[in-house]
Write a structure and sequence with these properties.
heterodimer, A: about 170 residues, mainly alpha, about 85% helix, B: about 180 residues, globular
Chain lengths: ~170, ~180
Amino acid sequence: MMRDDELLFKLGFALMPAFLLIPMPEGAVLLAFCFAAGLLVWQGVLSPAGKIKKPFLKETASITGLFLIVAGTDLACKIFLPALRGSAGFFFPVVLLNGLLIFKNERPEVKSKLCPVFVFSLLGGHLLIAWGEQWTGSVNPGAVFLGAGFFLACLKYCLQKRWLKI
Amino acid sequence: MTELLLVFAVGALGGNLVFSGGLGLRYFLPSERTPGAVFAQACLLGTLIALAALFSAGLDIYAPAQWKAAYYRTAVLLCGSFLIYKAGGHFSPLRRFDAGPALLFAAALVTGTGEMPFPEKVFYGIGTGAGAAIAWILSAGLAERLDFNRAPKPLKSAPIFFIAVGLLTLAFHYFAGLSKMCF
């Protein structure tokens, strides 16, 4: 599998739960912010953890950082932003964890390029879903998958044309 | 018994986390697509999900009463799911599958929150695991077919995979009615 394809798969796997399990666009805004902040904080945790020699301690430090980010973000949102957290839905910590885990092994440069793509795709996709819901009442998950497939095709075309070089 | 089987079917087909939630999707590389390997991995993943769901259901029964309102529930379920996934990863090359703990965590959350009695939670958890296993077997077959078929260049690999999964999801959407029968 080529590198571009792998990144497209990762982007799709991170985007799909965010489209399907976050019920409202306001929740998507919260998720986008928390994802970007979480990725930054986890990179900050991973950098010193990378200097640890023993693999077990290294992995423990990395996973503890991830626990703290996901559980802490969920708790902080429940306390300080209860309305927004409510609109993000029941699966908010799951989607956040999923996104962070999928981009875990990427280099910081790739993360810094993929993060804005993820955030803007998430917000744009949610606006489209909300618009679709106005017309049809509810959008079928299959239609969301199809839309994501065509969006990734456009992105792949952009990658081929080097408009967006990762 | 019929009710328990219905709950199992809801977990496996009606509320399939992979197709209705997009969690736990995976593209199988050509070297991983031997039927034995795919079946073994799917079975292991299903078992791990069922274990995570049972862990959550057990906690709901045996944990103190303030558990349901407590904020530490997310942290405990997250930690439990991670440990179960890491323990299971020693038996199979599931480590390549990055989003595994998120899938287990979702199953634990869903199972723990429902107002079902314990036996129904057990069947729901096992059904969720079976649903994920079915989804993995279908995804591997899909990836195999897509690699040997011609597609326009911009649609190759990731886009066509998601479009095909979208069509599968449309088919699975018809099982969503099972949830209405059950709950």
